[in-house]
Fold this protein.
Amino acid sequence: MFAIRFSQMKYKCFNLKYGLLIFVAIIFLSDKTRGVATKKESYNFAQDLLTHTLEINEHDSLFSILPVIQEEEPVVAYTAFEVFSNHILDKGQLPPERLLSFLWWHNKKIPLAEIKQLVSLYIAESAIEGVNHDIAFCQMCHETGFLRYNGDVCRTQFNYCGLGAIGNGDSGLVFTSMEEGVRAHIQHLKMYASTDALQNPSVSDRGRFVRRGTVTTISGLTGSWAADPLYAEKINAILNRVYSGDYLTTKPNKQKKEL
């Protein structure tokens, strides 16, 4: 009888011993495999204006995966540039990425391909004529309402600076392409600011109304380019905004009505 009881106790101790070993093994293995994906999965994260796609393969640690960045929207960097120049004949400081993000931020209905082309043209045409592309681009944003065209000028005119649009329903000049419209804008700025000859043939017949070399700074655009007494102040406000980058801290749907 005693032998039977001893055998039963020995059997229970044996089961308890190996049960504990199995339990410890499970805990140990779970610690080793913690954070490991057991099958291929995809995770999409939206952070700022980037889409990060993490592809996790079998037995790869979550903490060792590097994000693959897909640029579906313009990359925006919060960078404050130096004080802008108010001289029309000067070199602009803003890079194409900042101009692109600024315009897109204020009007997300525009195709990014169109904005990229427009930005490239403003920088290129300004460089040809020696015009400050910062001023020209911000003037375009003001004149077109960030390409919303809420005034007399319509989108299909490619008239980015309101040439010939004098109010009362007069829509102004019509250009045949984006390139021609941007060139007309830059050429008019140069004609106002300088008596030097244009590098390219004039694409607008309104140059005859310009008093050459009389407007060298933004402030001079008031009363010459437009009758609005606050015209220069509005362009300065846009320039300050794009230079400081403060628009990046404000949600588009909470912004005040643009100047």
